[in-house]
Design brief:
The complex is a heterodimer. Chain A is an alpha/beta fold. In chain A, 35% of the residues lie in helices and 27% in strands. Chain A is globular, with a radius of gyration of 19 Å. By secondary structure, chain B is mostly helical. Chain B is 69% helix and 6% strand. In chain B, helix 3 packs antiparallel against helix 10. The chains are: A alpha/beta, B mainly alpha. The interface between A and B is large, with 44 and 33 residues.
């Protein structure tokens, strides 16, 4: 790890709880991701990995705890009411503004099917960042080039393979110049032979210094690229640390059990 | 083409026989229409492009287009209201749809015709408070306006349900992805959800438009007496020969419907972009995978999904 303790961490989860009705999905999550590092979140299905990720950019509203991104409290404003320190929920517009600086890549790609690959990458640049059409197109072409899809710009998502769609989705997120990228099982919906091309793009992105939180089942990727591996089960962080420690010498029984099944 | 299967295809004698039977029946029907003097084809020809009929066609088009346009805008508001987090909005939209679908259009049109009797003077102001301005109802609600408003308000209730179904048909992952990009709810609706919903909305909305074309003949209830159906009936009654004039009206409705169907075809094609293509989804995906050359020794398929000789 490269970041010093003096700098603000890029992501900071502090006692995060999430309830879905009577279902206690996150039971006090603490997580710190220094700027410029990659955190890989592993764990069995239903352990709350995706929910924790979706809380970071407020796609889910937390039930308890605090989340800060680059020092900024997500979803709330701290103020005072009648002399007491009080939290105020942000408006939809303010939350949208916070989200714009965080890129997210979904398991099911979620490309806009009625727009071409280029259109997908241009859209939010024009609508959210208010870039001119030509500026946004120029940036989109550069990003499609970066993910190796220069010749697929005019294709609609339905005309692309899963791996190509996911690379467009990454380009779409990068077009917003995010300071943080969230990946929610980005290769889980892909045919095995297409996983490699997406991981290659992500590896390249990590090497360029992007802060990334990656929920994944790709142990090899976690070992090779992550600075920190976080193992979650039943809504809590069971174990976290350097990949070599967590993956090769897990201390907790649940981690050992999980790794025995997937490796 | 190498490796092509050489086999005798299955014969389908039943297809040939049924096609012949249906064609003979169709020829009989056409013959029965043309050779029957009771239809008065010369009279049909005389009135088909006559001035009163053409004026009727114009009014029918105006009624259809104007009421559908108003209904579409209103329906979008109602559909969004029904999906709103705001309980009052949901209930108001529900009651509107309940009322306008639940009462006969004919009765509604009579009501709009009578509005200037029920409310001779309409005013806008604060409830139980001061009046801001007022107008004489009869001057604003002319027969044609009453007809258009009556048709539009009724149609909006039906279209609202179609639009709601369309909005619900769009995968929630779409608005989630847009939200993650920092887009505002209004922008998401306008740029992401509605364009995809249109693919589901256009076919039934086309149905509604064609239905509206013929529903305009009910504006007699207002009473509004300029539309195509009223015009042809009037002529038919005057010359004591109603059948040819019914044929005139039918031919015009059929012609306009045909034009509307062509328009619908192009609308469907526009909103279907990205959802289907000539080779079909599977072939395109396969082509994309092959082009990526990620699979070793991949067989290259042509546009029809047939394997091409040799490995890639």
């Amino acid at each position: 790890m490269t970041a010093s303790t003096a700098t603000t961490p890029m992501v900071e989860l502090e006692g995060v709880h999430k309830w879905f009705g009577h279902n206690h999905v996150l039971r006090g999550i603490d997580l710190t991701v220094p700027a410029g590092t990659v955190a890989a979140v592993l764990g069995p299905s239903g352990s709350g990995k995706s929910t924790a990720l979706r809380c970071i950019n407020q796609l889910e509203e937390l039930s308890g705890g605090r989340i800060r991104v680059d020092g900024e409290l997500m979803g709330y404003r701290e103020g005072t009411r009648r002399g007491q320190p009080t939290l105020f929920r942000l408006t939809d517009r303010q939350i949208a503004h916070q989200r714009a600086a965080i890129g997210m890549v979904f398991q099911r790609f979620n490309l806009f099917p009625h727009m071409t690959a280029l259109g997908n990458v241009v859209e939010a640049q024009v609508r959210v960042l208010k870039r001119s059409k030509s500026e946004a197109t120029e940036r989109a072409n550069a990003l499609l080039d970066r993910v190796g899809l220069t010749d697929r710009a005019a294709h609609y998502p339905a005309q692309l393979s899963g791996g190509q769609q996911q690379r467009v989705a990454i380009a779409r997120a990068l077009a917003m110049d995010p300071e943080l990228m969230l990946f929610d099982e980005p290769t889980s919906a892909l045919d095995p032979e297409l996983v490699g091309e997406v991981l290659a793009v992500m590896r390249d992105l990590a090497a360029s210094g992007m802060t990334m939180v990656v929920v994944t089942h790709e142990i090899g990727f976690a070992r090779e690229v992550a600075d920190q591996v976080v193992f979650m089960a039943d809504g809590v962080v069971v174990e976290h640390g350097a990949p070599a420690d967590v993956l090769d010498n897990p201390r907790e029984a649940r981690t050992q059990d999980f790794l025995a099944h997937v490796l | 083409m190498p490796h092509r299967v050489d086999a005798v295809p299955v014969r389908h004698p039943g297809r040939w026989a049924s096609a012949v039977v249906v064609l003979v029946l169709a020829a009989m029907a056409v013959n029965a229409l043309i050779t029957n003097d009771n239809f008065g084809w010369p009279t049909v020809g005389k009135y088909l492009f006559s001035e009163p009929v053409l004026r009727g066609v114009r009014w029918t088009l105006v009624l259809t287009v104007a009421s559908m346009a108003i209904a579409c805008v209103l329906a979008l508001f109602l559909a969004v209201m029904r999906r709103s987090d705001n309980r009052v909005m949901r209930y108001v939209a529900w009651v509107y749809i309940w009322f306008f679908r639940g009462t006969p259009i004919y009765t509604q049109l009579i009501f709009w015709g009578l509005i200037s009797v029920l409310y001779p003077k309409l005013s806008v102001g604060v409830p139980f408070g001061p009046e801001l301005f007022h107008f004489t109802t009869a001057e604003v609600f002319t027969a044609s306006r009453a007809a258009i408003i009556g048709l539009a308000l009724n149609e909006a209730a039906y279209l609202a349900e179609i639009v709601r179904a369309g909005l619900s048909s769009v995968d929630t992952g779409q608005s989630e992805a847009a939200r993650a990009l920092g887009m505002h709810e209004g922008t998401i609706l306008r740029r992401i959800v509605i364009p995809q919903a249109m693919r589901v909305v256009v076919p039934p909305a086309g149905n509604e438009t064609i239905s509206m074309l013929k529903t305009t003949s009910l504006v007699l209830a207002v009473p509004f007496t300029q539309d195509l159906n009223f015009a042809t009936n009037a002529i038919g009654n005057r010359i004591f020969d109603p059948v040819p004039l019914l044929v005139v009206a039918a031919l015009w409705y059929l012609a306009i419907t045909s034009v509307l169907m062509v328009g619908q075809h192009y609308l469907e094609r526009y909103y279907g972009r990205g959802f289907e293509s000539h080779g079909g989804r599977r072939t395109n995906r396969q082509a994309a995978i092959n082009a990526a050359r990620t699979t070793p020794e991949a067989t290259v398929f042509d546009d029809m999904g047939r394997p091409q000789g040799g490995a890639a």
